[in-house]
Every structure is written in structure tokens, then in C-alpha cells.
Amino acid sequence: MYFGKTNKTKDERIPPDQNVTTGFPVLHHGNVPYYKDLMTWTLKIFGAVDHTKILTYEDLMNLPQYEYKNDIHCVTGWSKLDNVWRGVSTQEIIRLVTINSKAKYVILHAEEGWTTNLPIEDFLKETSLLAHSHNGQLLTPEHGYPLRAVFPHLYFWKSAKWLRGIEFSLENQPGFWEKNGYHMYGDPWKSQRYSFD
Ligand SMILES: Nc1nc2c(c(=O)[nH]1)N[C@H]1C(S)=C(S)[C@@H](COP(=O)(O)O)O[C@H]1N2
Ligand SMILES: [Mo]
Description:
Blueprint: E1 2-3, E2 19-20, E3 42-47, E4 53-56, H1 57-61, E5 65-73, E6 78-89, H2 90-93, E7 105-110, E8 115-119, H3 120-123, E9 129-134, E10 137-138, E11 148-150, E12 163-169, H4 176-179
Parallel strand pairs: 1-5, 2-6, 3-12
Antiparallel strand pairs: 3-4, 5-6, 6-9, 7-8, 7-12, 9-10, 9-11
Bound molecules: ligand MTE and molybdenum atom.
Molybdenum atom binds next to loops.
Pfam families: Oxidored_molyb
InterPro entries: OxRdtase_Mopterin-bd_dom, OxRdtase_Mopterin-bd_sf
Domain Oxidoreductase molybdopterin-binding: 29-177
């Protein structure tokens, strides 16, 4: 499947105060995990769900694979256009559990306890993906291998690299950058950079 067609001009694709880069900057807090193999790697789906579900890398690869092309916008001011992401749709992931109807938020858990938060409806947007590949190549360790989230409609800090857990929650709990002054939602089109924006 392939989505991401746009009728927008290049200028219309760039949110306020962003500059286009042709490189692919690496940005994160903490250390890059280097996996020799994925034998012990799992993705845990937990929290406000009927049962905790643990997926292996193989389980993920056996789910339907999607491809999307879109633009990403980092809060520090760079945007990168026309990224092709391949992976598993978040909509496939939630079919594996029953979510408590009162749950409204998702907390993503990455390696080293790094977290970020977003509303369930954003997690489930058609373009929201758990990606293993970028522009036809497996993610490099620096960019999130083996699995990262991609939410192109939010600032890129919400797109957790080295994803290990998806927690459904009744409350909106701030993640790592959100606790450090960044916005709880992070819409690049509204310049929602900091908590006071
Ligand atoms: N686990 C984890 N994911 C993370 C971050 C982080 O610190 N830890 N930083 C975020 C930020 S601020 C950005 S801009 C993007 C950068 O992704 P890239 O290094 O692939 O460009 O990752 C996001 N995902
Ligand atoms: Mo960022």
C-alpha cells in the first residue's frame, strides 16, 4: 500500500520557522542501542488493555506491511521532505488487544526509559506507522533500528526511536521532552514547541 500523495506546493509543506534539510540529522537524548540480533527484542503492548501482548520482531514482520511517503519536522527547526517509511500500521497493532474505552492517550516507551505521549486518535491516524525502514533501507541504529514510531503530523520528537512499549492510558502523562518544557501535543503547523505555546 502506498499513501502520501500531496497537491501542496513545497512552500505549503513547510510549517512556520522550519528550514528544509537534505541530510538526515540524528537527534536524541541518551545512548544508541546496537543490536547484534533480535532474539531477545520484544514490543510490549500494555496498560489500559484487556491483556498485555508481547510481540517478537518476527510477529511484527508477519503483520501486513505498509509504506507511506511524508515530511518530518523537528522542533529544532529542520524539516526533511519525502521520506518513505515502511512498517506496520498502528491500526494493525490495536487489533491485537481490546483497549479500555476510557483510555484516551498513548505513552510510547523506548530504550533507556525514554517516553513520549500522544492522544490515541493521533496514534491511530492513517499515516501513523511503526517503521523498520526508511527510503528502502532498514533503519540505521542511530535512526531507531529495529523499530521506531513515525507520526509525520506532529513534531518529530513524538516519533520514538528504539520503540519497546506501547502503553494505553486514561491520563495524558508527559514524556521525556514534555517534562522538559516541550508541548504536550506538538503540532508543527501551530508552532506548538514549548509548553507555553
Ligand atoms: N528514543 C528516543 N526517540 C527519539 C528521541 C529520543 O531522544 N529518544 N528524540 C526525538 C527527536 S527530538 C527527534 S527530532 C527525532 C530524531 O530522529 P532522527 O535522529 O532519526 O532524525 O527522534 C525522536 N525520537
Ligand atoms: Mo527533535
